[in-house]
Specification:
Layout lengths: L3 E7 L4 H10 L6 E8 L5 H8 L4 E3 L8 H14 L4 E4 L8 H6 L4 E5 L11 H8 L3 E8 L9 E8 L6 H24 L3 E4 L2 E4 L8 E3 L5
Parallel strand pairs: 1-2, 1-4, 2-3, 4-5, 7-10
Antiparallel strand pairs: 5-6, 6-7, 8-9
Helix pairs in contact: 1-6, 5-6
The structure holds glycinamide ribonucleotide.
The site of glycinamide ribonucleotide (GAR) has 15 residues, from helix 1, strand 5 and helix 6.
């Protein structure tokens, strides 16, 4: 199967983007990163991506009067790059139903919690406040509701006594960097499909969809 042409959408530093690009440089990885697109011209991830030899572009949401106009420009740029799959990687704009429909089940996101717990922002502080003992991250197909959609893969990390939101966040981020390339590989190899808004796997998926990270990971 040809490698799937994958665009990464970012708004910030792009550490998950970097993990995806690094994975895509392995010869047998099933996706190639054809474009890194940011809605913020100042996103540090853009320089990181071009330093790694990737094509980058900006579609600045502030340059558009309406969300449909902004998203039409995004879609035009994605189409021009021959995009098969889109990875949101710290892309901090809510996407509309129309955008989700246009890229239906070809649009995935990573979120720093074990969904459906802790959608939204400040997930690590909220996990500590709730007293959970396992926290983690989720890769899911995107739906119009924020941080919602069929779950592809999750990684759980322990919450440790005395954890701060920053310390816990670093542990989760390390898990994100391992999980996202594996989840994209499952999608790109077409080992997952959505049935009745749940993800179904091929009989023997090549990557484990659930990962328990030990402290050494
Ligand atoms: C990551 O932790 C990602 O899970 C989160 O933004 C961060 C981006 O970091 N995404 C969301 O909260 C989406 N709701 P990065 O730019 O270093 O990859």
């Amino acid at each position: 199967m040809a490698r799937r042409r994958t665009a990464i959408l970012i708004s910030g530093r792009g550490t998950n983007m970097t993990a995806l690009i690094a994975a895509s440089m392995e010869p047998d990885y099933p996706a190639e990163i054809s474009l890194v697109l940011s809605n913020r011209p100042e996103a540090p991830g853009l320089k990181r991506a071009s330093d790694m030899g990737l094509a980058t572009d900006v579609v600045d949401h502030k340059a558009f009067d309406t969300k449909p106009d902004f998203e039409a420009a995004l879609t035009a740029r994605l189409e021009a790059a021959g995009t098969d799959l889109i990875c949101l990687a710290g892309f901090m704009r809510l996407v509309s139903e129309e955008f989700v429909d246009r890229w239906h089940d070809r649009l995935i996101n990573i979120h720093p919690s074990l969904l459906p717990a802790f959608t939204g922002l400040n997930t690590h502080a909220r996990a500590l406040d709730a007293g959970v003992k396992l926290h983690g991250c989720t890769v899911h197909y995107v739906r119009a509701a924020m941080d919602n959609g069929p779950i592809i893969a999750q990684a759980a990390v322990p919450v440790l006594p005395g954890d701060t939101a920053d310390a816990l966040g670093e542990r989760v981020l390390a898990a994100e960097h391992q999980l996202y390339p594996r989840a994209l590989a499952l999608v790109a190899r077409e080992e997952v499909r959505v049935v009745d808004e749940l993800v179904r796997f091929s009989e023997a998926p090549s990557e484990p969809p659930g990962m328990l990270m030990s402290l050494g990971d």
